[in-house]
Write a structure and sequence with these properties.
The complex is a heterodimer of chains A (about 260) and B (about 280). With about 260 residues, chain A is of the alpha/beta class. Chain A folds into two domains: about 120 residues, Rossmann fold (3-Layer(aba) Sandwich); about 120 residues, CobW-like, C-terminal domain (Hypothetical Protein Yjia, Chain: A,domain 2, 2-Layer Sandwich), CATH 3.30.1220. Helix content of chain A is about 30%, strand content about 25%. Chain A starts with a strand and ends in a 7-residue tail after the last helix. The C terminus of chain A is likely disordered. Chain B is globular and about 70 Å long. The mean pLDDT of chain B is about 90. Chain B has about 280 residues and is an alpha/beta fold. Chain B has a five-stranded mixed sheet with strand order 3-4-5-9-6, covered by helices on one side. A four-stranded mixed sheet of chain B has the order 2-1-10-11. Classes of the chains: A alpha/beta (about 260), B alpha/beta (about 280).
Chain lengths: ~260, ~280
C-alpha cells in the first residue's frame, strides 16, 4: 500500500513520525497536508528539510492519487481539526496510522483514533485536548520578515508561557539577520523550545522570498496583541540591509580564510 | 545599627508598602533608596511622594534621570528591539503622568550617597546606567568600589540581589627610573594589598527578576557587617490590575506576575556604559 494516512492530536509527533520515512526512502515521495493552506508550517518544514520530497497542493491531490506511480509513497498528514470519519481518503486503499499518547497506544479503549486507525503508534507523552474543548489554530504568515534574535527569544518565551493565551503547540519558520532560517517547535508538556537550523542557502540580499510562517494552537488567543509584538520584533529594511552587509563581508572573509565555498543566495 | 537598602521600585506602590512594613519588623533604623522610583509601574507619583514624605535618602536611578532629561541611553539599556519598544512606551506613559513637582524632585536626587565607609549608587559610581553584574571582571568591580572611596558599595539596577566579596586583592606595580649618565632602568616594585571590599546589590522592590513576583531588598548591620536579603510577598495582582487599568501595556502585568522584569536586562558583564 503506497498511501499512508497519519492522524493524531496536536503535538503528538505526526510530522516527526512521517519524517523517519522521508529521510530513508529511495522511492519517489509525496507529502500532503490537506486543508492546511500553502503556508502551513508542516508543509514548509517538509519542503525545507526534504527537498527531494514533492509537497502536494490540495488542488493537485485528487489527480495525483488517481495516477500515483507504482513505486511512489504518499504520506498524508491529517490535521487534528479534520473529522476522521468523513475523510474522502478513507475510500482509498491505504494504511491508516494514528499517533497517540503512550497510555492510549497500550489500551484497547475507545477513541476516534481507535475507531479509525489500522495501526496505533505511541507518540509524545502529552495531554490530549478534551473533545468538548477543541483548541483553535492561529497562523501568521511571516514571509519576508527577518527577526531580531533576542526579541524573538523573548517573544517565544512569552507566547509559550501563556502571555497571549494558552498555547499547547507552537511551530514556525523564522528568518534571521545572518541569512539563516530556523524551524522552531514547542509542545506543551515537553521540555523547552526546540530550534533547528534549516540547511538552506543564506538569504543575504534583501528581504527573503522563501515562505515562513508561525502557527499556534491553543485557547483564548489575543491574536492582535501577539501580532503586534511579532511586528515589533521584526527588523526594518534599513537594519536588514545593515546586517546583510556585515554578514556578507564576514562570510566572504571566512570563505577566504577557510578556502570554503559559502552558498549565498 | 541596621540599615535597610531598597532599590528599583518602578512605580509599584503596593510592593513599596509591603517592603516598608517588613523593614519595620526588622527594626532597621535607617533606610536608603538606590533610585528608579518611577518607570513601568502604575503609581510613579505615589511612590515618589511616599519616599519624600518618609524623608528616605535616595539616589537618582536611570529611569528617574530619563524622566528628567529624556531618553538617551547607550545600547546597554535594552537587550532587544522588543524591549526597547516597550521601554519607550513605559517612558512616554510615565512622562505624561508625572506631576511637575515630582519631576523637579527627581532632578534634585544625587548620583551617590555616602555614610561612613558605605556608598550607595543606582548602577555604578560611573553612571546610573552601568550594570555591575555579579559576573563582572573582578578587577573592574574592585575599581568601581575603590573609585567610590568605600568599603561597601550598594547598587541596584540589575534587579537581581547579590553580595560579592572582593578579597585578597594584591596589586603589584613596577616603577621605572632612569639614572643620570646611564640609560639602564632601575625597576622598583611596589605592592599594595587591598582590604576586603564588597558589592551588595539590593535587588528590586517593584520589578523583580528572580522568577517570582515578590519584592526584594537588603538589611545591612553596620556593627557586624552582616547582610540579610529579604524577599517580601505582596498583593502583586493589585499592581497588575492597575497596570492594565491605567493604560500601560498588559504584557507588563503578565511579566510582573511571572517575576520576569518588564523589559530592561543586562547580559554583557564586560560592557562599559557609554552614557
Amino acid at each position: 500500500m503506497n498511501i499512508t494516512l497519519v492522524a493524531g492530536p496536536p503535538g503528538i509527533g505526526k510530522t516527526t513520525w512521517i519524517n523517519q520515512f522521508l529521510s530513508t526512502s529511495k522511492q519517489p515521495l509525496f507529502y500532503l497536508c490537506p486543508a492546511a493552506g500553502t503556508e502551513a508550517v508542516d508543509r514548509l518544514r517538509v519542503g525545507y528539510h526534504f527537498p527531494e520530497v514533492t509537497v502536494v497542493e490540495d488542488t493537485q491531490a485528487a489527480a495525483l492519487l488517481m495516477n500515483l506511480p507504482d513505486q511512489a509513497q504518499i504520506y498524508i498528514e491529517l490535521g487534528f481539526h479534520l473529522d476522521l470519519a468523513a475523510l474522502p481518503f478513507n475510500q482509498l486503499p491505504c494504511r491508516k496510522v494514528a499517533i497517540v499518547p503512550p497510555e492510549l497506544a497500550q489500551l484497547t479503549e475507545q477513541s476516534e483514533w481507535h475507531d479509525w486507525a489500522d495501526e496505533l503508534v505511541a507518540g509524545n507523552k502529552i495531554q490530549v485536548p478534551h473533545p468538548n474543548c477543541f483548541p483553535e489554530t492561529r497562523r501568521m504568515p511571516l514571509t519576508g520578515q527577518v527577526f531580531d534574535p533576542p526579541s524573538l527569544d523573548e517573544l517565544l518565551t512569552e507566547i509559550t508561557g501563556g502571555a497571549y493565551g494558552q498555547v499547547i503547540r507552537l511551530k514556525g519558520i523564522f528568518e534571521m539577520p545572518d541569512g539563516q532560517a530556523f524551524d522552531i517547535d514547542f509542545v506543551e508538556g515537553l521540555p523547552g523550545i526546540e530550534y533547528t537550523e534549516l540547511k538552506l542557502p543564506r538569504s543575504l540580499k534583501g528581504r527573503p522570498t522563501r515562505p515562513s510562517s508561525l502557527e499556534v494552537v491553543g485557547y483564548d488567543f489575543q491574536q492582535k496583541t501577539m501580532a503586534e509584538a511579532l511586528g515589533v520584533s521584526c527588523l526594518s529594511d534599513e537594519l536588514i540591509a545593515q546586517y546583510q552587509r556585515q554578514y556578507r563581508q564576514q562570510y566572504k572573509t571566512t570563505d577566504l580564510t577557510n578556502n570554503a565555498e559559502e552558498n549565498v543566495a | 545599627m541596621k540599615l535597610a537598602v531598597i532599590s528599583c521600585i518602578h512605580g509599584n506602590a503596593e510592593a513599596l508598602d509591603a517592603v516598608l512594613a517588613d523593614i519595620d519588623t526588622q527594626r532597621a533604623e535607617e533606610i536608603y533608596c538606590l533610585g528608579d522610583l518611577v518607570g513601568y509601574g502604575p503609581y510613579p507619583n505615589e511612590v515618589v511622594e511616599k519616599i519624600r514624605s518618609l524623608a528616605i535618602p535616595s539616589c537618582q536611578g536611570c529611569w528617574d534621570e530619563d524622566i528628567v532629561d529624556g531618553l538617551n541611553a547607550c545600547e546597554c539599556s535594552y537587550p532587544s528591539q522588543l524591549a526597547e519598544y516597550r521601554g519607550r512606551l513605559a517612558h512616554e506613559w510615565t512622562d505624561r503622568e508625572i506631576h511637575p513637582e515630582v519631576r523637579e524632585y527627581l532632578a534634585t536626587l544625587p548620583l551617590t550617597l555616602k555614610k561612613d565607609n558605605l556608598c550607595f549608587v543606582h548602577g555604578s559610581p560611573n553612571s546610573q546606567h552601568e550594570y555591575l553584574l555579579p559576573s563582572m571582571d573582578g578587577f573592574a568591580a574592585l575599581e568601581r568600589v575603590l573609585s567610590a572611596d568605600a568599603d561597601v558599595l550598594f547598587c541596584g539596577h540589575t534587579h537581581v540581589p547579590y553580595e560579592r566579596k572582593l578579597e585578597n586583592a594584591a596589586l603589584s606595580v613596577k616603577v621605572g627610573t632612569a639614572e643620570s649618565g646611564d640609560r639602564a632602568q632601575q625597576l622598583q616594585e611596589q605592592q599594595f594589598q587591598v582590604p576586603l571590599k564588597r558589592v551588595i546589590n539590593a535587588g528590586s522592590v517593584g520589578e523583580p527578576r528572580h522568577g517570582r513576583p515578590n519584592a526584594t531588598y537588603v538589611i545591612y548591620n553596620t556593627d557586624t557587617a552582616e547582610v540579610t536579603f529579604r524577599e517580601v510577598t505582596y498583593n502583586y495582582e493589585k499592581t497588575c490590575q492597575a497596570i492594565v487599568e491605567k493604560g500601560l501595556p498588559p504584557i507588563f502585568a503578565w511579566r510582573l506576575a511571572k517575576g520576569m522584569e518588564f523589559a530592561e536586562r543586562a547580559d554583557d558583564p564586560s560592557h562599559v556604559c557609554e552614557r
